[in-house]
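User: Second chain of the day. Same drill as before.
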Amino acid sequence: MARPRIRLAHENWCVFIDRVIAPYFATNCWLIASEAHGECVIVDPGIAEPNLVAPIKAKLAEHRLKAVAVIITHGHLDHTFSVAPLQDDVGISSIFIHRNDRDLLANPKLAMGPQGLALFAQLSGELGGSLREPTGVLELAESQQLQIAGIAMDFMATPGHTPGSITVVMNDEVVVTGDTLFAGSIGRTDLPRGSISDMQMTLREKIATLPGHLQVLPGHGEETRMEHELSSNPYLLAALRGELA
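Assistant: Same format as last time:
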């Protein structure tokens, strides 16, 4: 479990970050705020039994944070499973997702391979109450700038892992990459609706243009820095050479 930390971004800004790691697929659920004891956004509440609400609420209570929005980096179930029950329990009114993955909130099976479909059948039988579409969904376009919970957010469409995958730069300090970019790796593109050609374009034209000082908060695994990934991530380097396959 990551330790909460304060990082100074600019003279008048800071970003407070903590996370809960979902038991299924070890998905990172990030809690991000402009300061401790204020408003926060929650990124990708994933799969747990019966859901991930209890550990998220424990973090909110520990840091005296108020969740005001959920950001979904893409529509795979391991990043969306607990959105509806969290919304019911905490009272979050705004759910952000790219419009190209919007339909996966209602029908996540559209982007699942055989393993995912088997898990979906299991979860539907055992934990069906969690598999509901949330309300208050706000669809993101290709590029948008918003201020949420006191944080300046630059949303960028980064298709490849799914058509509606997004990357979010927050306060010019951290970048939330979902399953587009990991430490030393990238998200898979072999599931339904994934695209290796879209991923190569995303990595070359969007991810590789991000500034090196950004701290990377990925959808799975540990944090990294853009400067490290730009110099050593083999998939990103291959994409820059036009050789990602």
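Residues 1-13 have pLDDT under 50 and may be disordered.

User: Great, on to the next one.
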